[in-house]
Amino acid sequence: MITLKPTKIVRQFLKRLGPDLDLLLKIPGVTIFTIALNGFDPSEISELVGFIDELLDVKCTDKELVDYWWSLPTYLALYSGADVRIFLAEIRDVASKPPYTPRRGSA
User: Is residue 3 part of a domain?
Assistant: First the structure.
């Protein structure tokens, strides 16, 4: 059982994956990453990445992970634990790079 509680920032991120996601993705240049991550400051991105890292480190079955995903405030339908892991790993990887995370040595 996963007992990790999403923070306010994590809930904001998840709510961006709402029922109008398919419409937003039709806009040229818009990706699921820009929808999910734009507007967060570096400290908020860091908090989100930390949550994702912690969740991906939890020892659980695919069923436990997908059940946990469905308990979160999001409309993005992921039907397997593998899909949840892949999606969150991709979000983490994109969020860990510019423009979402400042380059090292930049202020």
Answer: no
Q: Per the omega criterion (within 30 degrees of 0), is the bond before 98 cis? A: no
42: in domain: yes
Structural domain count of the chain: 1
User: Which residue type, as a one-letter code, is found at position 17?
Assistant: L
| pLDDT tens over the chain, length 107 residues | 899 999 999 999 999 998 898 899 999 999 999 999 999 999 999 999 999 999 999 999 999 999 999 999 999 999 999 999 999 999 999 999 998 987 766 55
Residue at 107 is within a domain: no
Q: How many residues does the chain have?
A: 107
In a domain, 79, yes or no: yes
Tell me which residue range forms the domain holding 86: 8-95
pTM of the predicted model as reported, rounded to 2 decimal places: 0.89
**Distance separating alpha carbons of residues 81 and 26, to the nearest angstrom:** 27
- Residues 93/75/2/9 CA torsion (nearest 10 deg): 60
